[in-house]
Amino acid sequence: MLYWIWLTQIPFIGPIAARKLIEYFENAENVYKAKEKYLEKIPGLSIKQKKNVIEFRSLKEAERILENCEKQSIDILCWQDERYPTRAKEPKDAPVILYYKGHFKEIERTIGIVGARRCSQQDKHRAVNIASECVEKGITVISGMAKGIDSYAHTACLNAGGYTIAIMGNGLDICYPSEHYQLMKEIEDKGLLLSEYPPGTLPTKYTFPRRNRLISSWSDKLFVIGAGKGSGALITVDYSKKYARKVYW
């Protein structure tokens, strides 16, 4: 797993470039050991990206991250793992590794539920009803564990005995928002916590939009509830449209 972590820590090597390297060399260890003459043959990578693969050939940071994962009971899902859903791997910018806590189960159908952090009682009831109906139909509920609609959807799913996935914009050793600590523990116990960020990564205005694209890619459909102008949920909508997912308001 060290080589997979290493690949994601190379400067200027994002998910798209990492995926090109994996597709060419078959796995992360082969990328690490690749000679420069073979790297030069890969189309679609800049000179700087190819240079960085060579210059940042050290496993020290990957070893530190893996050690932190082991201390925090965080597991790692890599690109070639059969548990990585096909739907989530379709977009070109899908991460080659994801950090997770909880347990995987066979996922046949998924629905993303996102919306306003400050919402009306009517919107709250709608989120609860949709999540509850998903459980009755055996559909996995996906959201971002944010305040408001996200948390209501997760909670309703858990209360109904369903399976929910929370995709987070920070390392899984951090609970954000902090008041959702108990919810986070319940999702870990009964569902799945996911993040593309290693432990210790703080939430920022940059990590949340990246998180939102994963909510879209992991969901077959997206329900948007009470999201007004400027809401982060609209970023999720844009990604859902980009990934050809149906969006319901």
Question: Secondary structure elements and their pairing?
Answer:
Layout (H helix, E strand, L loop, with lengths): L1 H7 L6 H11 L2 H6 L2 H4 L7 H9 L4 H12 L3 E4 L7 H4 L7 E6 L7 E6 L5 H16 L3 E4 L5 H11 L4 E4 L13 H10 L1 E4 L11 H12 L2 E5 L7 H10 L3 E3 L1
Helix pairs in contact: 1-6, 8-9, 9-10, 11-12
Family: Belongs to the DprA/Smf family.
Protein name: DNA-protecting protein DprA
Pfam families: DNA_processg_A, HHH_5
Structure description:
This protein is α/β, with parallel strands linked by helices and 249 residues long. It has two domains: 2-71, DNA polymerase, domain 1 (Orthogonal Bundle), CATH 1.10.150; 102-248, Rossmann fold. The chain has twelve helices and eight strands. An eight-stranded mixed β-sheet has the order 1-2-6-5-4-3-7-8, sandwiched between helices. Helix 9 (149-159) crosses helix 10 (181-190). The protein is elongated and about 60 Å long. The termini are far apart.
Summarize the model shown:
This protein has about 250 residues and is of the alpha/beta class. It has helices at about 1-10, 15-25, 30-35, 35-40, 45-55, 60-70, 85-90, 120-135, 150-160, 180-190, 205-220, 235-240; strands at about 75-80, 95-100, 110-115, 140-145, 165, 190-195, 220-225, 245-249.
Radius of gyration: 18 Å
Largest beta sheet: strand ordering? 1-2-6-5-4-3-7-8
CATH architecture of the largest domain: 3-Layer(aba) Sandwich
Shape: elongated
The number of strands is 8
User: Given the structure, what is the number of helices?
Assistant: 12
Q: Remind me, CATH topology of the largest domain?
A: Rossmann fold
User: How far is the first residue's CA from the last residue's CA?
Assistant: 40 Å
